[in-house]
Amino acid sequence: MNMFPGSFDSAPNIANWFTINKDGTVRMVSGKVEIGQGINTAFVQIAAEELDINPDRIEISAGNTRDGLDGGCTAGSQSMQTEGISVRKAASAARMLMLSKASELLQSDVLELNVIDGEIYLNNNSTDLSYWSIAEDIDFNQPVEIFMQPKLPSQRKLTGKSIKRIDLKNKILGTHEFVHDIELDGMLHARVVRPPSVSSRIIEIDIDQINTLKKLKKLVVNGSFIAVITEREEDAVKLAQQVNKYCTWSTPDIIIEDPLQFIRDTKSPIINSLDRGEIDELRSDGISTEVSRKFLCHASIGPCCAVAQWKGDSLEVYTHSQAVFAMKRTLASIFDIDESNVDVVHKHGSGCYGHNGADDVVLDAVLAAKELNGTPVRLVWSREDELSWSPLAPGMVTKIDANLADNSMIESFDISIKSPPHVKRPSGENGEYLLAAEHMSSPLNPPNPIDTPLDKGGAADRNSMPLYDIPNIRIQKQIVYDLPWRTSAMRGLGAFVNVYAIETLMDDIASMQEIDPIEFRLKHLSDPRIIELIEKVRDISKWTDRSSGLPKGFAFSRYKNSGAYCAMVVEINIDEDIQLINAWAVIDAGEVVNADGVKNQIEGGIIQATSCTLIEEVNFDGEIISATDWENYPIIKFKQTPQIYVELIDRPEEPFLGVGEAAHGPTAAAISNALFTAMNIRIKQLPITRERIISSLNN
Amino acid sequence: MVNKYSLTVNGQKHDIESDPDTPLLYILRNDLKLKGTKFGCGGGVCGACTVMMDGLAVFSCDTPIWSIDDKKIETIEGISQDGTHPLQELLIDEQAGQCGYCLSGIIMKVKAITDDDPTKSVDDIANELDRNLCRCGSQLRILNAVKKYLDGMSSR
């Protein structure tokens, strides 16, 4: 068993993580990258705690392959649970190593020493020594494992405090350098010339005519990957459209009328995710639900961007990818160059919420830059590219048949999940899942990805395993690989729909039995941690006082069944549209490092999930994705902002639990349950729109 | 066709040679190196590129340079000399943001609205932010900061 989840394989020594500088600063390396979730602030806070220094002293370098620390992909709400622990161990080891040196110099025992902001004290008296004075003479190339000695929970002072995000101030002042803002000497601008739809390929291109276009510096043609390079950014925008007039593209021959029906009718092999106890056919007194969600866009506000520069066979890339090392391996594989020749450097991007086009745009920029020897190229996607060429979040269908026992308790859940793949992240050789890799003159066709098994967190089947005491459970999934559209991870993966299915069904059964839906759940729970959570949200939302006021709905889940717990009550207003007015969330994320950081993630999660629940859906015109701008893929607006009340149950003795995706499923289900309470209608296809409510009333 | 244009940005006069239809956004970002203003959609729908022109909020992504000769432009970089505009300070206090990409446009929009009419309510402002999108879900924190900003203005 790997004792060190996270990044210790590539970074076993203290020196891999920390450099203590004479000038009173500390350089810290992180394998997890900032994607707006505040992870690097949490890491700085953990390190400052263990080192006993002011967090302002720490400069963090995150997601730079030159640092050598491979933290894997920043995804799945895993960063705190894996690398957060590694940071704590590595920082504690750095402290212990320095105190060992100080004890030698002071001829004292380590236990007699303490540290205040890097200054070393002996029996609480100041000494001439500090980290900054002794670090030079210490070899930090020593294993973390030998020196680590994290503080006990009772010794922590900074942990749990809401220190401010290290990056947010400059983002508010407009001075933070995003990947979009990088400017290298001689840098040119590029844009991709897009085919009409995903399986269209180039038939003919009138290069002679294109070369007469003014301001075109270079036309890039590599199979069906076509891009323009210009000196000025706005010229690339215009020329990408002009060049397309000289391109003839093939039109797809397969038209899928109803993608969700196609998913429902799939003949893909059945994968058994879980088989526990005995499953009978649905009995006449049983209850069944089938819920579905249409495809979604990640819908980042800033379109994806990358900057690439070739120098001979060496390649340097600036990117907002969530996985810089995987990108390095993938690029080395595609261009058949040694991995050591590829440097990938993370820079902050616009929020991605999963696997948007951040990786795809890298290959676009790299292919464009390859046409120029040594000149850096910056490539930004258009709004249309961002919405309709990023991988989509897959549409999906989840069905549950529930049988009830004689005592009205749930006897069995028989769960069936059908979905296109949720994870198509590039992963190196044979995993080159990049848009342009399909378009190049020698297109790559990496094998279909395997859907993550449920015991590893699952993907389509994520959170399909209810945490209620149900003796018999069967979970089966079918992965639909034969739709033309590219799909990959979006916040929560299958959890969004699976939690929606489970938590709306729990309310349906409770209603059938005329039991309060929270009471009904508590009857099926024995884990004291979950019970405390649910009772708390019931209290703070004044759940029992529902005689007047807005309709309320409840839902619960524990993300991946291994991350943070989230219990939620919402109040909605039903007018022309449904609006979320109030949300109360109680969160158990184990030990809390930054309370405000956790709250920020939950609040943002609730607002984004509300948008996904009430507004968002991708429609198709044949193979063409209709979501091309904010008019035909609207998201939530300021005037639809709910009030949100988040309470944390801090458990300093427990491990960190990831919170980034905890709120999504519960938000959707709680909104639906509030509507069900108010109008006795159950909307089974997301999003819950006015049209679907009217059609449900008419039926 | 390249023409000469004169514009004042954050109090500083600049002479620019440009095609007349070049969007202001690219002049600001690439000629004047003011990168705080962001590209989001190119169609004046998301608000990431919002700047102030003679006191009014405009989308710099679809404002061509020919239309702004001799106008006064204010960007995120110019709203306070030392980065301590009260609205920015309140946003920092509230930790109002996640990825932060949308923020400069939202700040400029709120500043334009409230400079013009400091008696607006937070609900008025939420309505007027109809074309400023935030995908991370920071709206609640942003509006909380705006509310405090409005309270501060009315008590001054």
Q: What does this entry look like structurally?
A:
The complex is a heterodimer of chains A (699) and B (156). Chain A has three domains: 14-172, 2-Layer Sandwich (Aldehyde Oxidoreductase, domain 4), CATH 3.30.365; 180-251 and 298-388, Aldehyde Oxidoreductase, domain 4 (2-Layer Sandwich); 396-423 and 459-698, Aldehyde Oxidoreductase, domain 4 (2-Layer Sandwich), CATH 3.30.365. Chain A has 19 helices and 27 strands. Chain A is globular. Chain A starts with 13 loop residues before the first helix and ends with a helix. Chain B has two domains: 3-78, Beta-grasp domain (Ubiquitin-like (UB roll), Roll); 86-155, Orthogonal Bundle (DNA polymerase, domain 1), CATH 1.10.150. Helix content of chain B is 35%, strand content 16%. In chain B, β3 (50-53) and β4 (56-59) form a beta hairpin. Chain B is globular and about 50 Å long. Chain B starts with a strand and ends with a helix. In chain B, 54% of the residues are buried.
In short:
The complex is a heterodimer of chains A (699) and B (156). Chain A is an alpha+beta fold and 699 residues long.
What's the name of the CATH homologous superfamily of the largest domain in chain B?
Beta-grasp domain
Tell me the fraction of residues in β-strands of chain B, as a range: 15-25%
Tally of DSSP helical segments of chain A: 19
Over the alpha carbons, how many angstroms does the gyration radius of chain A reach? 27 Å
Name the assembly state: heterodimer
* SS field, number of helical segments of chain B: 5
Order of strands, widest sheet of chain A:
9-10-7-17-14-15-16
Write the layout of secondary structure elements.
The complex is a heterodimer of chains A (699) and B (156).
Chain A: H1 14-17, E1 18-20, E2 26-30, H2 39-51, E3 58-62, H3 80-106, E4 113-116, E5 119-122, E6 125-130, H4 131-134, H5 144-147, H6 168-173, E7 188-193, E8 202-205, H7 207-210, E9 218-222, E10 225-230, H8 233-244, E11 247-249, H9 259-264, E12 271-276, E13 287-293, E14 305-311, E15 314-319, H10 324-335, E16 342-346, H11 360-370, E17 377-380, H12 383-388, E18 396-404, E19 410-419, H13 435-439, E20 472-479, H14 495-512, H15 517-523, H16 528-540, E21 552-558, E22 565-574, E23 578-588, H17 595-614, E24 620-621, E25 624-625, E26 643-648, H18 664-679, E27 685-686, H19 690-698
Helix pairs in contact in A: 2-3, 14-18, 17-18
Chain B: E1 3-9, E2 12-18, H1 24-31, E3 50-53, E4 56-59, E5 72-74, H2 86-94, H3 103-116, H4 122-128, H5 139-155
Parallel strand pairs in B: 1-5
Antiparallel strand pairs in B: 1-2, 3-4, 3-5
Helix pairs in contact in B: 2-5
